[in-house]
Specification:
The complex is a heterotrimer of chains A (329), B (260) and C (326). Chain B has 260 residues and is α/β, with parallel strands linked by helices. Helix content of chain B is 32%, strand content 30%. Chain B starts with a strand and ends in a 6-residue tail after the last strand. With 326 residues, chain C is α/β, with parallel strands linked by helices. Among the domains of chain C are: 87 residues, Nitrogenase molybdenum iron protein domain (Rossmann fold, 3-Layer(aba) Sandwich); 122 residues, Nitrogenase molybdenum iron protein domain (Rossmann fold), CATH 3.40.50. The longest helix of chain C is centred in the middle third of the chain and has 20 residues. The chains are: A mainly alpha (329), B alpha/beta (260), C alpha/beta (326).
């Protein structure tokens, strides 16, 4: 498929699912009522529901899905590993731990900004640890192994902090941090996360040439004028910013970054840079679709969207592992 | 563009690998880099390509090679690593097109000029007929030629190729060496490491022989590839003859005391 | 955030959930796995069995005729009644949650008592004559204690305004403090009757909206308190039974006159606390949002509930004065 046509088609799909996300909810609003509510403002129930509840949710679905898809694509390209995923270098788990540590300790009161502050601090810590390891030995294997260790450690620490919280609700919230959700987010969350995610997108986009060159391995890429350390910084910082901000407001939503690049890649030239935008758009579409689905499947006891993405993603991951043994993507 | 190195020392993980190596590479010549495994051939090439730190002087024309920004260096010196990595199911054409990366602006597509250079590189390595095939589905020898075409497409005055002929069938070994010779004919300087002694003797204008990280011999093949040098450097006895195309060297056994 | 329903659906069966009526001090996780038979492992099992052998002879059932001399309460709601009624020295310990101002109206009094974590071993070491606990919450503990020969009295977690005087009198009888209990129960009934006598139209709508967007519906203490204070409980009208998730969108759509949200953050923040504070609720122009009831006053069915009834009654009079009789 021509890149322009592909991007256009995925953008339209994401837009359609964005509108579907706006249309789904327990309050049964008619179409005209919804549209009026979205643009009118004021104290009408329809307006409050659309602008304060559904719009933030749909915006976050769009932004977080885009971030996860793009982050997955760039990591797969960078690590030349079709099994890479934002979670794999430990950024998601460390972001969740950072958010949990800062928020539940009450260090920042109960302020909302404690979440991204903590998540970015956690992601930054992950970045620094990974950079320290990668500076000495730039191999991708080191990065992946370090990521696995960081993820396990961060997961355990998250559970520890939540269990130690005197607030009896806190220990139940581990579900959210492990399997995230977009439920009941507000526009404040959007303002907290979106600028950070956008900064992440920019950094990732700047690494486009480098990940193309890295298709040929690090030595060949360096000989093509690619600054490897700078590339590593751009990608790890971009992923940390994007995934950190996304995790801060929605918990860990796994596998979007794994599944989407694989679904979209066959429709591209497979040049890693050409996958970034389609994977972002596809990620937005997938997360929005999953978030609409959780509201339709169990309207009352709404499922966490992270549960659904894991239900789809984990078998997909296993299938990839089997396939990866004999094929190149 | 002339490449001149003097007194090059390289250590890997604190272990000295190259000791005071000096070497020049003139435009228009193919220089063969010979030596047994572990002699430091790949290390020398990686140092020239700026992949590892080295002390000593490396001059490319008037410039200090080590001080050149990576993007500038990539337009002057192409490096074909020994490891043959193809990460994704890219078509041969797209893969070789990556060689144009140093010449492209951010995100810019290939211009007609680039496409022309890519086609020439494909022709040169005899892979033009594979241009639309996924590179990952080719044979090892075909992949080697595709990757070499990528380095050629960089269109640089200097090309450094680490064992480009290994794993190729005899016909394509000759194709490869003829391509390098043709590139040298375009006034480029070529440094190529080889294990095939006959190939080196017949296609290289000069050979440089390394042993234990030091320059052991250097000069035209006829002068340097002697039974004595082969015995002291490789530890092999060889049957050496010649025809109108040059030397023919066939290792026949180990010298007294075996491999050095 | 434990998403909708997760904590509260299980509030009545899990020990750490701060359900109003079902709070029993949770055992430390892992040391006392809830909902499993045979909870002792390894050394603990051995030491318990050993103690059991020793105790078998020593422990006789305490005589019921005499008021119990050593009473231990394992549940924050039985804590309230026991602290209010027990004779000096009679109550040997209360649950650790009794010191939590958000859950325990008598949290100051609780500072004077040792606290327990509701574990069978706590009880075993204290050797009480009477153990007070909530039904259902620490089922395994209760069963075990009964098997070990302790006298255990359970109070139902289903509490409403009607059950409170009954529970007060029952507690009085158990502790041998019938006189005090009767006076307290009578006061409660009189105070409640006074408020209910003032009932009139219109009845504004109210929603008790807890952490994570869980509403208190039919059958809850809050429901009876709201009704007694002259409100209509929106959650009950929307068909919520007990404690159940109530979507934020529906709150906005139904525009209740007041939304009662948890006050303060307690000891530590949680994400669930953000739901009742969602900007969508603040955007409702005519809806009042606040804690409105004195801290902790309606978390347990005890005499303090009357404070909640009175506070809400006063609020109702303020926002919706009685219509003049035609």
């Amino acid at each position: 498929m021509k890149p322009l046509a592909l991007n256009l088609a995925l953008a339209l799909l994401a837009l359609a699912l964005f509108l579907a996300s706006l249309a789904v909810g327990p309050a049964e609003l008619g179409l005209s009522e919804s549209v009026r509510g979205l643009f009118a403002g004021g104290g009408e129930a329809a307006s409050i529901i659309m602008r304060e509840i559904r719009l933030p949710r749909a915006l976050l679905g769009l932004g977080i899905g885009f971030t996860l898809g793009m982050a997955g694509a760039v990591l797969q390209g960078f690590l030349r590993n079709p099994l890479a995923e934002p979670g794999i270098i430990g950024v998601s788990a460390m972001a969740a731990f950072g958010a949990v540590a800062v928020f539940y300790s009450g260090l920042a009161g109960a302020a909302l900004y404690a979440l991204p502050a903590g998540a970015l601090a956690g992601a930054l810590a992950a970045v620094l640890i990974l950079m320290a390891l990668a500076a000495r030995n730039g191999s991708t294997l080191t990065l992946i192994l370090a990521g696995v260790a960081l993820s396990s450690l961060a997961g355990a620490l998250t559970a520890l902090v939540l269990n130690l919280s005197p607030n009896p609700f806190a220990s139940y919230e581990i579900i959210f941090w492990l399997l995230g959700s977009l439920k009941d987010r507000s526009i404040e969350h959007v303002w907290l996360a979106l600028p950070l995610m956008a900064a992440g997108w920019l950094l990732i986009a700047l690494s486009a040439r480098a990940i193309d060159a890295l298709s040929l391995g690090e030595e060949a890429a360096a000989s093509l004028g690619i600054h490897l350390a700078r590339t590593r910084f751009l990608i790890v910082a971009g992923v940390a910013l994007g995934v950190g901000a996304a995790t801060a407001v929605a918990g860990t939503i796994g596998f979007v970054g794994l599944v989407v690049p694989h679904l979209v890649r066959p429709l591209t030239t497979r040049m890693p840079s050409r996958l970034l935008l389609p994977a972002g758009l596809g990620g937005a579409a997938l997360l929005l679709a999953a978030d609409v689905a959780v509201r339709l499947v169990l309207p009352a006891g709404e499922l966490n969207v992270g549960v659904l993405t894991a239900l789809i993603g984990a078998p997909f991951f296993l299938w990839l592992v089997v396939r990866a043994r004999r094929e190149v993507f | 563009m002339r490449l001149a190195i003097e007194n090059l020392d390289v250590s890997l993980s604190g272990r000295p690998v190259l000791h005071g190596v000096g070497l020049t590479l003139e435009p228009g010549e193919v220089v063969g880099l010979l030596g047994p495994n572990g002699a430091g051939k790949s290390t020398l090439m990686r140092a020239l390509a700026g992949q590892i730190a080295a002390s000593g002087t490396m001059r490319l024309g008037k410039d200090d090679l080590a001080a050149l920004p990576p993007t500038v260096r990539a337009r002057l010196l192409a490096y074909l690593p020994q490891s043959r990595i193809i990460g994704w199911r890219l078509t041969v054409g797209d893969l070789v097109g990556l060689g144009r990366l140093p010449w492209r602006g951010f995100g810019a597509r290939l211009r007609p000029h680039d496409t022309e250079i890519v086609s020439r590189a494909l022709e040169l390595m005899d892979v033009a007929h594979l241009a639309h095939r996924p590179a990952t589905e080719l044979s090892g020898g075909e992949q080697a030629r595709v990757l070499a075409a990528r380095a050629v497409a960089q269109d640089t005055p200097v090309l450094i190729a680490d064992e480009p002929a290994s794993g190729l069938d005899p016909a394509h070994q000759i194709t490869m060496m003829r391509a390098l010779a043709r590139l040298a004919g375009e006034d480029r300087a070529i440094l190529v490491s080889l294990h095939d002694l006959t190939l080196a003797a017949r296609w290289c204008d000069r050979v440089v022989m390394l042993k234990d990280g030091r320059l052991a011999a250097e000069g035209p093949p006829e002068a340097v590839m002697t039974a004595g040098n082969l015995a002291s450097i490789y530890g092999v006895a060889a049957h050496i003859t010649r025809d109108e195309g040059g030397l023919i060297l066939a290792p026949t056994g180990l010298t007294e005391g075996g491999a050095p | 955030m434990s998403e909708r329903g997760t904590p509260l659906k299980t509030a009545q069966s899990l020990d750490r959930a701060p359900s109003c009526q079902a709070i029993t001090p949770p055992p430390k996780r892992g040391r006392w796995p809830a909902g499993r038979k045979g909870v002792f492992h390894g050394r603990k099992r051995a030491s318990l069995l050993f103690s059991l052998l020793l105790a078998g002879a020593a422990l006789a059932l305490p005589a019921h005729a005499e008021p119990p001399a050593r009473v231990m309460s394992l549940n924050v709601c039985t804590d309230q009644l026991a602290m209010a009624l027990a004779a000096p020295g009679q109550l040997v310990s209360v649950s650790f949650l009794a010191r939590d101002p958000d859950l325990s109206p008598l949290h100051r009094e609780a500072e004077r008592y040792p606290v327990n974590r509701g574990m069978a071993e706590d009880v075993f070491l204290a050797r009480p004559d009477l153990v007070l606990t909530g039904t259902y919450t620490l089922h395994n503990t209760t069963q075990l204690l009964k098997r070990l020969g302790f006298r255990v009295e359970e109070f139902s977690f289903v509490q409403t305004l009607d059950t409170i005087p009954r529970d007060i009198r029952r507690m009085g009888a158990l502790l041998g403090r019938e006189g005090e209990a009767e006076a307290m129960a009578a006061d409660f009934e009189a105070g409640l009757a006074e408020v209910e006598a003032d009932s009139c139209e219109p009845r504004p709508t109210a929603l008790a909206y807890e952490q994570n967007g869980v509403a208190l519906g039919k059958g809850t203490l809050a429901d009876t308190v709201l009704t007694a204070a002259g409100f209509r409980n929106l959650a009950t009208e929307e068909g919520v039974e007990g404690m159940a998730p109530f979507p934020l969108e529906l709150v906005v759509e139904k525009k209740p006159d007041i939304v009662i949200v948890p006050g303060g953050d307690g000891d530590a923040p949680s994400l669930g606390a953000f739901v009742p504070r969602h900007p969508a609720l603040r955007a409702l122009p005519a809806t009042r949002i606040g804690a409105f009831v004195p801290r902790g006053s309606w978390s347990c069915g005890g005499p303090a509930v009357l404070e909640a009834v009175k506070a809400l009654h006063a609020l109702r009079r303020e926002i919706a004065p009685c219509r003049k009789a035609p």
